[in-house]
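residues and backbone:
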Amino acid sequence: MEKTNNKNRSNISGVLAAVLLFLLLGIVGGCMIFVPDMKMIYFCYIAGGVFLTYGSYLVIRYFAKKEYEMVSNYHFSVGLLILIMALVTLIRAEEVVQIITIYLGIMVLVEGVILLQHTIQMKHMQGTWWLTLVFATVLIVFSILMLLAEESVLNDYADAFYVFLFFIGIIGVISQIVVAIQTNRYHREQELKKEVALQEEAEVTEMENLEEKEDTISQLEE
């Protein structure tokens, strides 16, 4: 049971990270579409603040939950890296704006890889894995185009670029919710199957014990 709880806590932190990234992508896309006066440096401050909060959460939780007792737990390392990235983003926000396309492209690529892993999980759990695969493929291809495209091309298609980011954010959050629901449902079903199997095994053992007692009684009577 304790092992299951540890897995659930890890799943929650992973889903939270993915949701935060999708929210950031949706926010930057929505703001650039619906708020013409929005400056990209504001997004850098927002992203830096979010990463700072999440990185601190991972580091604090690592010690508060005694996760250092788990060999395969890397929340401290990941949290520290996120904290460093957050500080760099906040302190050098003006420089980050100059490479914001690369910054966003890496975020989209990370989300695509995360969704690719979700695809494997969903296939194992017999969920709607092909939808996740399509979305993950789109994100990875889009991120590569963002990272390799010339700045002039990105400027020419800036509106379409931000619209796509906006919808990535919305669909991404929904996909994470669906994955979380199906994962929890799968684990509940597996736990239920284990309980049923244990109950059936106990009933069989009890029946065998009763039969042995009856045989013993009949032998004594003879």
In short: The mean pLDDT is 84. Helices lie at 2-34, 40-64, 75-91, 93-98, 100-124, 129-148, 151-156, 158-221. Residues 107-221 form one domain.
